[in-house]
Write a structure and sequence with these properties.
It is built from 5 helices and no strands. It is mainly alpha-helical.
């Protein structure tokens, strides 16, 4: 096994761990939402708080470091479009984690501790966080497609389809978040 093959194996393994764990949690949370089990959904979010520094962050950073090493060791360059797309997707996911999921998770934890799992504000925040998480998963799946298909500037159709999927996902998420916001507002009269 060459060094490049070892790096590729580790890169793909870290990607599977990162995306697989995120996907599993999204499915579990969706099941709890559909069952109306707020306590179970809140428990999954507590688990994410524990898993983030032990699984999600290490796997995410491993994907980045191993990917960079693959570019350096392999026949790739950082100016290739598919590598730029992958790095951008990684950065968006990582920044969402640091700037949104971590602080919102802390707020949700405090609300749950103070008011319990049936608090309407807690429920609204959890649903909004779940919508944003599904967009993040969509981005990660698009990054996987990017890594497999390795589009260039000549692959306009493929890039257009990926962009359309991303835009549709973001618009659907924005609509869901707007509905959550308007549902929380008291109705006039």
């Amino acid at each position: 096994m060459s060094r490049y093959e070892l790096l590729l194996l580790l890169h793909i393994s870290a990607s599977i761990i990162w995306l697989g764990a995120g996907f599993l949690l999204a499915v579990l949370v969706l099941g709890a939402e559909m069952a109306g089990d707020r306590e179970k959904a809140a428990g999954y979010h507590r688990d994410v708080g524990w898993l983030a520094p032990r699984l999600f962050i290490p796997a995410s950073l491993s994907v980045l470091v191993l990917g960079v090493l693959l570019v350096i060791d392999g026949p790739w360059s950082f100016d290739q479009l598919w590598i730029t797309i992958a790095l951008t997707g990684w950065a968006v996911s990582f920044l969402l984690g640091i700037l949104y999921f971590a602080p919102e998770g802390e707020r949700i934890g405090a609300i749950a501790a103070d008011r319990g799992p049936n608090d309407p504000e807690l429920s609204r925040r959890l649903r909004r966080l779940n919508v944003v998480d599904r967009v993040q998963l969509l981005i990660l799946f698009l990054v996987v497609a990017d890594m497999v298909l390795k589009p260039t500037g000549d692959d306009g159709g493929m890039l257009a389809v990926a962009a359309a999927i991303l835009v549709a996902g973001v618009l659907l998420a924005g609509n869901a978040i707007r509905r959550l916001g308007s549902a929380a507002e008291p109705s006039p009269g």
